[in-house]
Amino acid sequence: MASLQEPWLLENGNLKGSSKEIRHGRTAHNMSSSSLRKKSDLTLVSKVRCGMLRHLLTNLQEVILGTKLTVLFPAIPLAIAAECYGFGRPWVFGLSLLGLTPLAERVSFLTEQIAYYTGPTVGGLLNATCGNATELIIAIFALWQHKIEVVKYSLLGSILSNLLLVLGTSLFCGGIANLGKEQKYDRRQADVNTLLLLLALLCHMLPLLFRISAASVSLTEVPTLQLSRVSSIIMLLAYITYIIFQLVTHRQLFEAQEESEEHGDDLSEETPVIGFWSGIVWLVGMTAVIALLSEFVVGTIEDASESWGLSVSFISIILLPIVGNAAEHAGAVIFAFKNKLDISLGVALGSATQISMFVVPLCVIVAWILGIEMDLNFNLLETGALALSIITTAFTLQDGTSHYLKGLALLLCYVVIGACFFLSKTPS
């Protein structure tokens, strides 16, 4: 098959190839999550004589028990029970967050399984739209409930978390674990993502500057909204062009060097473990559960804020991204330990690019369709934090090499920003 001869890696639209480690459109997002997977023991299941029952049990074994995060799955029924039986709303919020963690990793696994049958291009496109499904679904439910500030805070937090926390932890841990080696990565990946992040920053800053420069806020309210919608359309077009650039026209620019060593964990992912239609059904089911838990999270965030004594901004910007993407983040750090920074950068920068260039403008367009006035003005403090984070990350990655001090600097930036939002608003 042609797909066997052209392995490509697309992290949220960012393409790389590696014949040893990447097959059938596997992504940096997939490979990051795969570090938390475990090989299923199908000895008992294979003894079941009924073919349909054996097929069902095999799917349950691979999907539910095929991850090291299986211990968190009980949080899902507990969250549903807490909501149905009127337990404390903060409990519903906390359990829903825990339940979203393994679901995000399993969505990555299922998209990878489907990519085995569709080939690298369709698999890459699937990941380009589903790479941050959890954040998108939470944002849509928050929009539906007219909680625009929660939408902005959660998406901003995801970008900051990827740029500073995930990337910083990866560079720091990778530098400590590889003190005797020079850590290098492909600058082309970082350059392309940084360019798009700066474009997204421009689209965020102009509505803010437009409103600040006016004599009266009321005079700029409608023009700011119109500018945001036009900018969102342009950002979406730029993201589509970005996908074409990586998948079609310039994919050869992002080919990685072939690894000289074999890894058993990677080889175990060389063949699909569930069928195509089984993967589709599981993906739809997982997405439905994510939607349910996301509705719980959005509906109980104010109660959790009041009960825990934390502002909604701090919970949305700091806690939601850390818990919701814990599996992906842990995988990025694990690959940094292995001195594979291209994968770690693919996870951090690719996710930040997808959120800023795809999820944020898509939310503005969806809000427009729903008759909700959401703009790209994230306020002065939030936009300033985003700008400084992008600029700091760009300077950190400009020379193509890494050491632990760069990672520490990014982590300290994240700590300072977290402290700022912790103190910026007094809980009600």
Automatic annotation (TrEMBL):
Keywords: Antiport, Calcium, Calcium transport, Ion transport, Membrane, Transmembrane, Transmembrane helix, Transport, Vacuole. It is a multi-pass membrane protein. The keyword Transmembrane helix applies. The chain crosses the membrane at residues 155-180, 192-210, 230-248, 273-294, 314-337, 349-370, 376-397, 404-424. Its main location: membrane. It holds the Pfam family Na_Ca_ex. Residues 15-34 are annotated as: Disordered. It comes from the Eukaryota. Residues 91-247, 279-417 form the Sodium/calcium exchanger membrane region domain. It is found in: Vacuole membrane. Gene3D superfamilies: NCX, central ion-binding region. Coiled coil: none annotated. PANTHER family: VACUOLAR CALCIUM ION TRANSPORTER, VACUOLAR CATION_PROTON EXCHANGER 3. Belongs to the Ca(2+):cation antiporter (CaCA) (TC 2.A.19) family. Cation/proton exchanger (CAX) subfamily. Vacuolar cation/proton exchanger (CAX). Translocates Ca(2+) and other metal ions into vacuoles using the proton gradient formed by H(+)-ATPase and H(+)-pyrophosphatase. This is Vacuolar cation/proton exchanger.
